[in-house]
Structures are given as structure tokens and as C-alpha cells.
Prior knowledge:
Blueprint: H1 4-16, H2 21-31, H3 34-50, H4 58-77, H5 83-86, H6 92-105, H7 117-136, H8 141-156, H9 167-177, H10 182-191, H11 199-206, E1 208-215, E2 221-227, H12 232-245, E3 253-259, E4 265-266
Helix pairs in contact: 1-4, 2-6, 2-7, 4-6, 4-9, 6-8, 6-9, 7-8, 8-9, 9-12, 10-11, 11-12
Amino acid sequence: MKSIKEQATETKILNRLKDRPICLELVNYLFSDEELQEIQEYANNVSIKRLGYNDHGPVHMRQVVYNAIKMLNILHDFGIKTSLEEEEIGTFEDSMCAIILAGLMHDMGMAIGRQSHEEMSALLSQPIIDRALMHLFPDNLHKRVVIKAMATEAIIGHMSSHKIHSTEAGILLIADGCDMTKGRARIPLAINTMPKVGDIHKYSANAIKWIGIHHGERLPIKIDIEMTADVGFFQIEEVLLEKINASPAKKYVELYAGVEGQERKCYL
């Protein structure tokens, strides 16, 4: 049974894709895939209950997809082509399909463990990607190969530990970093009360009140973050900024952050 938050995030994604019929068909297919749902839920169990990390499950993966769709659409609004478009090997909708696949599967490897989980995610995702793309493009091997490769690059690259080169993978990397609000830390903070190394990630995420992704003023994408306490700067400087700096899409992003009631700090 999907949680209310999962269903609400799915609705947001569906609304964002109402003018993209192929992408809409893809997310509906994936949202109903029972194996994908089971792996996402088990990955979250391992992350929170076994390892004491924050949310890496179905809600997080859906939120990353939503963030990535917003950012890719903003680039499209500014007339900026994706890598597949620039290289004349695919369409904008192909790029969108790739980030949807990657977003919904990038943390599946947490079902195995934290170390190298991006590589394990790529491994676990392949059969699901294959059947989803066969459902969408049964007679188009070219699209299946290109979208699968792009989605796999984005999955492998979402921790910024592997060099990535495409705009699509770069957007997914930043979209993942943007899901760091207090909701992701709520459950682990409630069930893990003994202090240990790594708690700063939970407490800093808990200080993030909201994150806005908008059309920018100087650059296409504006990321605006409001916090309830200074500890939130750790999450921005040690997690999000590191991902943006490693992203091929960095040149399109401006970043602002600050504690509520105080002036925003401009990072990019």
C-alpha cells in the first residue's frame, strides 16, 4: 500500500507530464511496477532501520524525479538543448524518459548497502529499465539503447563519485541533492536516538524548511533554500554544492540559501 506522501508526489509528477504522452505512459507503467515498489521499500528499510541514514525509498525517489522534471523543463523553456538533442541522437522526451528511469531507480542499491550503492542501483535497475523501454518502444531498438545508456549514466553519477558528461545526468545529480528537507530526516531522527558519526546529515537536513526550484534571474535555474537554523548550511555546502560543482549542468544554476528572516547567501 503506497503512503499518502508517495501518492501526492506521484500526482505532482503526473501533472507535470500531462503534455508529454510518452513520459506519462512511462511513469504510469513504473508506478504500477510491483518489483520496483518492493525494491524501493526494502532499500528504505535498509537505509533507515539497518544503517540509520535518512529516506532513500519510494518518496525520495519520486521527489528526485519531480525535481529533475522541473529543471529539465526550465532548460527547455530557455531553449537549451539536452545532450541527446545537441548530439542529434534523441529527442527532449527521450531525455525526460531517461531521467525518470534514473530518478525512480537511483537509490535501489541501498537495498544492498551504502558503499557503492550507485553501482548496485545500476545493476538492479537493468531488467526493469529493459522491460519499461520494451513496453514503450517495442519496435525501436535505437531509442531503447540510447535511453537505457543515458539513464544508467545518471544512476551511476548521482553521488558525484563517477565523472558524468551529459546534461541529463547532471540534472539528475542536482535533483537528488535538492531533496534534503526536514521530511527526509524525520523518521531516522525519531527512531535512532543514540548519537553516532554521521548524525550531522540528519540534523542539518532537519533544518531545511523548504527548497524552491524556479526560473532564474541570471541563469536559467534558480534554487532557493530557506532554513530554520544555521546547521542547514552544512547540508548545502557539503552535499548540494558538491553535487552542483560536479554536474555538467552547473553553468545553468544559481543557488541562494539562508535562515528564515535573514538575508539569503548567494553561492552561485
